[in-house]
Amino acid sequence: MRQDLPTGTVTFLFTDVEASTRLLGELGAEGYAEALEAHRRVIRGVLSAHGGVEVDTQGDAFFCAFASARDAVTAAAAIRDGLEDGPIRVRIGVHTGEALVADAHYVGLDVHRAARIGAVGHGGQVVLSPSTVSLLEPGAAELVELGEHRLKDLSAPVRLRQLGAGRFPPLKTLHRTNLPVPATPFLGREHELQELVELASGAGTRLLTLTGPGGSGKTRLALQLAAELADGRPGGVFWVPLAPVRDPELVPAEIARSLGVVPEAGLSLEGAIADRLARSTTLLLLDNCEHLVSGVAAAVAPLLAAAPSLLVLATSREPLAIAGEREAPVDPMRPADAVDLFVERARAIRPDFGPDAAVERIVERLDRLPLAVELAAARIRALPPAALLERLDRALPLLTGGRRDAEERQRTLRAAIAWSVDLLDDQERGLLARLGGFAGGARLDAVEAVAGGELDTLESLVAKSLVRVRQDADGEPRYWLLETIREYAIELLEATGDDDSVRASHAHWFTALVADIGPGLRDRRQREALGRIDDELDNVRVALAGATARGECETVAAAAWELVQYWDIRGLFDEAIRVAEESLAACGASPRPDARLHYVLGFFQARIADSEAGASLEQAALRFRDAEDSDGEGLAWAALAFETMIAGRFEPALELAERAVRLTQHGDPWARSWVENVLAMALQEVGRHRQSTAALESALGILERLGDGYNAAILRLNLAENATAAGDYPAAREHLAAGLGEAERLGTRMLVGAARVNRVQIELRAGSYADAAELLVAALRLDLPDQREQMELLLTAAVTSAAHGQSDAAIRCWAAAERAGAGRWLAAPTVRPTVEELLAPLRTTVEPGRFDELWAEGASLEPDAALQTALAIAEELAAANA
């Protein structure tokens, strides 16, 4: 062991040269070698002066250690300043953690964390971890808050800070991703990971499928691969978990859910996803595809054709078998890595555990499959390695029957699961079987009600690694099964003959849950209700499908009625339509459920511009009348009024809205507010502006008393449009600020984007061009997946440029906006007057040939490139106004 390495709590410092390949080309081999040697002298001189130890040097990267966090930070600043005038600039990461020394080197997660932090910055930038900052005296260093960031180790977000006030591009972290935080760190497979990075980065790779038996570690490897590839994916890296999904038709809905895509009128859900992916360089990870291969293939093939820069990763037990697919079989772990995995999991149970020869034989006996190794390691509390090996040697040969056509590794894994289950007592085995009935896991209350589980039994299954536990959005524990174990549990359940009763109990419990949560979607419990249904969506889907199959029309109709607002906010339009259609086909003549299902059908048909929407809504209204439900009838007529308005028939729309108001006047306040909003829009279209604003204010008052923030935000945006049209800009700003605040609290990206763009448009209408430029910068920095909002944003950038006399930029952005809109949408009412005032004259004031040239340049830009161009323009305008 090296005697010079600090021990205990150590601060690690990593440096790396930025753009070394480019520098080599610029300086030549000899010049670069000289510059590199000068950079090494600076770093080593600083280490000597500040008590640092050079742990390792690889190429142009340094790994250093300090006994003091203050000394490490001082040294980082000295390295940065010492290299400032030379051609080489280094990014530096500093992190403090516990030092574990093995074979004269530091090992452990803190070393990896320090390296990850060192890799996120830019040349000349020093990034510090929270643990290092916490050890500095207040005011000891000038620190800049960089916010919370996820690193490529897929850990939870960390709050990073920068040393000094320099300005740099955004950190290279996982900022546009929904990749989950794994329960355990990535261990082993570093060599395989690097090979996969190279394969996925190849010019011809569009679809890369990691194949192998369940439990072979495909998901964990794919997650790490996705994180490693994030730098080249400005459109984001998105995980689509398909294990709980059973209907192949739901694959597009799950992709849209992960991307945050909401379909626009006139576009199918598939079309909206394709539009989103065609506009940016994005990576999709489709996880656990084997039971949905046909559905995944049908969804992926057109996306690859529509989005040339899209990269799809998939995990499956078999390839998707579509054009352009490259298969990467996931082999068993290397022997040393498998032993390390066993030891790491065993030490979580027995911290003093030390491996012996039996461990090596155990992992070999289990074909070095990660899940099988984890299941065995979980038994280390009761069985030492030698006893564990003896039981495996007796059990596995008897349990490798299974399907004779399955590959040996798959049979070994099933045998390992069977062996582990065989060691359970009857109570544990029965609960495991019943847990197979849940999709995506369940909370304790559901486990107790549906599966008859007790906490002690459940915790025993967790301790044996057969059940996993994670936290839901609100911090409640959720118990779930890996898909391989769930399949085995379902087989156990079917063998007991209790599967029908468990499924019926499951459907009853989760439809009752929807009935309980649903009202909260429309009042001050809205955020919690949205999160709760997000957590249970897979179970809700299974419950609705089961109830539909059993012909329980009233149950499905009641649940669908409560889910309308959820489906609307989350953009699950096609799913809502399918639920309504399938249940109507099995529904009798009872008027209320029939009316509710027709309303759901028509409401969401209108969202996708289906020509049948009007007929469905009219049928809903008439059936609500049969049921003597005036609120339901009023909502249906109001929805039909909105449809009529979209068609440009404003007077008939007003008549329908007024009828809806009369029906709901003395009923449910929420229904009345929704109807009054539609009435207000119709009044505005026929020029009755004061009455429109009065109706909006009345509806807003109701929603604010109820606490429905989502619809209140929409009404605020509508009020801002009315105030802008009337020239009351202070009122418009006030309404918009309130609407934006609520949209941000709810995390509804579409509303946030719309509000920020509308605010810029208000300032343009008000003639506050400097404020418009500054606000435009903030709006352009948003990730807006909605194509209509991107069109509005580019058009607003064009008007802002014209307002500042930048006609070239204005024409380019105008042309890019026209391309993004593709003739599908009109500009918002708030921006139309400024388009006519500031943009339209450019067609005559700019020389025709020059105008055409600039227009062609703007029209050739892909949306992402156009938005980046617009951002650069807006930043210049904002800086000029500062």
Describe the structure.
- The protein has 882 residues and is of the alpha/beta class.
- The strands form 3 sheets. Strands 1, 2, 3, 4, 5, 6, 7 and 8 form an 8-stranded mixed sheet that branches. Strands 10-11-12-9-13 form a 5-stranded parallel sheet, sandwiched between helices.
- A hairpin with an 8-residue loop joins β7 (143-149) and β8.
- α11 (357-365) runs parallel beside α13, α16 packs across α19 (499-517) and α33 packs across α35.
- The protein starts with 7 loop residues before the first strand and ends with a helix.
Set out the fold topology.
Blueprint: E1 8-17, H1 20-50, E2 53-58, E3 61-66, H2 69-82, E4 90-102, E5 105-107, H3 109-119, E6 126-128, H4 130-133, E7 143-149, E8 158-163, H5 190-200, E9 207-211, H6 218-228, E10 236-241, H7 251-259, H8 269-278, E11 282-287, H9 293-306, E12 311-316, E13 325-329, H10 335-347, H11 357-365, H12 370-377, H13 385-399, H14 408-422, H15 426-435, E14 442-443, H16 444-451, H17 455-463, E15 468-471, E16 477-480, H18 483-496, H19 499-517, H20 526-549, H21 553-570, H22 573-585, H23 591-607, H24 613-626, H25 630-646, H26 650-664, H27 669-685, H28 689-706, H29 709-725, H30 729-746, H31 749-766, H32 769-780, H33 787-803, H34 807-821, H35 832-839, H36 842-845, H37 848-859, H38 863-881
Parallel strand pairs: 4-6, 9-12, 9-13, 10-11, 11-12
Antiparallel strand pairs: 1-3, 1-4, 2-3, 4-5, 6-8, 7-8, 14-16, 15-16
Helix pairs in contact: 1-2, 5-6, 7-8, 8-9, 10-11, 10-12, 11-13, 12-14, 13-14, 15-17, 15-18, 16-19, 19-20, 19-21, 20-21, 21-22, 21-23, 22-23, 23-24, 23-25, 24-25, 25-26, 25-27, 26-27, 27-28, 27-29, 28-29, 29-30, 29-31, 30-31, 31-32, 31-33, 32-33, 32-38, 33-34, 33-35, 33-38, 34-37, 34-38
